[in-house]
Design goal:
The chain is globular. The strands form three sheets. Strands 7-4-5-9-8 form a five-stranded antiparallel sheet. Helix 2 packs antiparallel against helix 3 and helix 2 runs parallel beside helix 4. With 206 residues, the protein is α+β, with helices and mostly antiparallel strands.
């Protein structure tokens, strides 16, 4: 009986996959906001996750906002309704978009709640996620310095026929004029695959 329980835990279900991906977004967004100085460094605290020391916000309003986003993402990921999440960083003064962190999500729509769990270990997935988070942290070495006070927006691309939930609103894509793009690593749970990239304003260089 014990052996069977361990084996089941190794497999990845649709709901389990949705939770892994939503949790990655929570830590990934926190990392971006910290690395890019969108919120003061003293409003972040250190936590251990994926074998890394990560920084997460202690700001009550931001925490609440991100928790709500992650819960909504879990629901949409379970139904394979979400195709992309974008963190848009823009200048508060001019409203100009300076960076666009894009996470494209591919979902295996043959996966159902009652499907047999997929064969991939949590460790293998966490190793892949760790590589993505490390890359997010390393981007500060090549991204232009954000010399103006900035704010962020989250854009979530869903299936066209899906009703927009309360407290969410339709938005344009908020592209960057004259941008440079860097593709980051991807990870897969075997049900959801997440491809990452960052675009930034090219002429921000001196």
């Amino acid at each position: 009986m014990a052996r069977q329980a361990v084996r089941e835990q190794q497999g990845i279900t649709l709901r389990g996959s949705a939770e892994i991906v939503a949790e990655f977004f929570s830590y990934g967004i926190n990392s971006i906001l910290y690395q890019r100085g969108i919120y003061p460094p003293e409003t972040f605290t250190r936590v251990q996750k994926y074998g890394l020391t990560l920084l997460v916000t202690t700001d009550p309003e931001l925490k609440n906002y991100l928790n709500n986003v992650v819960e909504q993402m879990k629901e949409w990921l379970c139904k394979c309704l979400v195709q992309r999440l974008v963190v848009v960083i823009s200048s508060i003064e001019s409203n100009e978009v300076l960076e666009r962190w894009q996470f494209d999500i591919e979902c295996d729509k043959t996966a159902k709640d009652e499907s047999v769990p997929r064969e991939k270990s949590q460790k293998a997935i966490q190793d892949e996620i760790r590589s993505v988070i490390r890359q997010i942290t390393a981007t500060v070495t090549f991204l232009p310095l954000l010399e103006t006070a900035c704010a962020f927006d989250l854009l979530i691309y869903t299936d066209k026929d899906m009703a927009v939930p309360e407290k969410w609103e339709e938005s344009g894509p908020q592209f960057i004029a004259n941008s440079e793009e860097v593709r980051l690593r991807s990870f897969t749970t075997t049900i959801h695959k997440v491809n990452s990239m960052v675009a930034y304003k090219k002429d921000s260089f001196p």
